[in-house]
Amino acid sequence: MLKFYNTLTRKKEVFKPISEDEVTFYHCGPTVYWTQHIGNMRGVVMNDLIVRTLEYLGYKVKLARNYTDVGHLTSDEDEGEDKLEKGAKREGKTPQQIADKYLKIFERDVTALNTRPADIKPRATDNIKEIIGMIRILLDKGYAYQTDLAIYFTVLKAKDYTKLSGQNLAKNIAEAGKGEASDPDKKNPADFALWFFKTGKHKNAMQTWESPWGKGFPGWHIECSAMAKKYLGDTVDIHMGGIEHAPVHHTNEIAQSEAANGVKFVNYWLHNEHLLANDVKMAKSAGTAYSLAEVKAKKYEPLALRYFFLSAHYRSKQNFSWEALAAAAASLKKMQNKIRELKETVKLSAEKIEATGINEHYRGQFIAAIEDDNNIPQALAVLWETLKDDKLTADETLATVFDFDSVLGLELTKVKLDKTAVPKKIQALIDNRQKFRDVGDFAEADKIREKIEQLGYEIKDTPNGVVVNK
Ligand SMILES: [Zn+2]
């Protein structure tokens, strides 16, 4: 039975979709004003693993991941500057050019990490009509009010406003940094903006639209509520995002959607934890907000980063370091070599491997792991155990690990036979020669070198070990 830890109820629950035919899934996407760091990438990969798990278990998934391209202020709150404007000023471009640029980089990076593309990728600026429609409903129902500067949602009217975070309202306000609201007409510091007018500190706002109440732009939270409703319906099966969004952004999404739609917004709330660097949250200010481009510049393939992500559960914090990435890259290489070795043994075509039965013992273990709140580190351990089990035939091993890889996404089926690989026989001679060198028996070592050369291979001793040329 598939179970997820639901932030809303604070327990693992058996997953039951609204419709047998399709699971609706909303994932809070990036604010496209800068390159997303690998901590954000971890969130996307964690989302991808859950989507792939659902599909592996036979569910059809409709995944929507939005792009925030207006209204997300620098404080995550009602204060500060619109992030897209900040990006525009930084680079001397228009907000739309900034959104286009960073949206492309985001898509390039998540593709390189082999994540399954979202089915729907809405932009907030393409959904202004729907956002205005939802604000109108909230005003009509008495959940919102207007001041000279903005339209606000009345938090005290929402049913059980802090149910997702489990915080009391005072703590919620304090944590959200809402004590310093600059609008004197705001009734409660916890109230949040649905619409900002092009006035006051936003009088020079670069992206504005006409609305029945005056020219302006939407708040960040209402965007997700409006897009989830438009593309997935009033009630969504699963909504996922970073844990930092639970007390503010997702809390506000629930308040707006349930007030406007009159039904439960989301059945299962899933939150992934942060990626840390040097044991603290990744941050641009600390110089640790690494991008995938930096990972590639250091000659790591993106799949090595994906492998690194697989080694921690989505609800656990994971600490990034270049050493840890190097270890993950080495493990992935070892896995690829093992696959290559098995492929050389069986010389089977992909069709033949597919036709071979999957080992049911390991498959049972694998499914038990992914069904238990997506325990991917355990699933990865099962894959390794399968690979190392020499009681299985090579084709059975390959068929089984390829099946598992449809969830893990390490592209194991694409591992090619290596024509330049050193044959086992030569490698054995090299290893043997090293043993003699280690004990100072260079005469014996040289004899083995001659033998290797007679077989057509040349070896060179370097500070990094033996280099072999054919
Ligand atoms: Zn969102």
Give your account of this protein's structure.
With 470 residues, the chain is α/β, with parallel strands linked by helices. A four-stranded parallel beta sheet has the order 4-3-9-10. Strands 5-6-7-8 form a four-stranded antiparallel beta sheet. Strands 12-11-13 form a three-stranded mixed beta sheet. The chain folds into three domains: 3-272, 3-Layer(aba) Sandwich (Rossmann fold); 292-414, Cysteine-tRNA ligase, C-terminal anti-codon recognition domain (Four Helix Bundle (Hemerythrin (Met), subunit A), Up-down Bundle), CATH 1.20.120; 424-469. Helix 10 runs antiparallel to helix 14. It contains 16 helices and 15 strands. 44% of the residues lie in helices and 14% in strands. A hairpin with a 2-residue loop joins strand 14 and strand 15. It has helices at 38-56, 83-91, 95-112, 128-140, 169-175, 220-232, 246-261, 292-297, 302-310, 322-346, 350-355, 360-371, 376-388, 394-408, 424-438, 442-454; strands spanning 3-6, 11-14, 23-27, 61-65, 144-146, 150-153, 192-197, 216-218, 236-242, 266-272, 275-277, 280-281, 318-320, 458-462, 465-469. Residues 28, 224, 249 line the site of zinc ion.
The tally of strands reads: 15
- In helices, the fraction of residues equals 40-55%
Q: What is the general shape?
A: elongated
Distance between the termini: 53 Å
Indicate the CATH class of the largest domain. Answer: Alpha Beta
Average of pLDDT:
92
**What is the assigned CATH homologous superfamily of the largest domain?**
HUPs
Low-confidence runs: none
CATH topology of the largest domain: Rossmann fold
What structural class do helix, strand and pairing data support? alpha/beta
Bound molecules: zinc ion
How are strands sequenced across the largest beta sheet? Answer: 4-3-9-10
The amount of beta strand, in percent, is 5-15%
Region (Disordered): 74-94
Domain tRNA synthetases class I catalytic: 15-328
GO molecular function: ATP binding; cysteine-tRNA ligase activity; zinc ion binding
Subunit structure: Monomer.
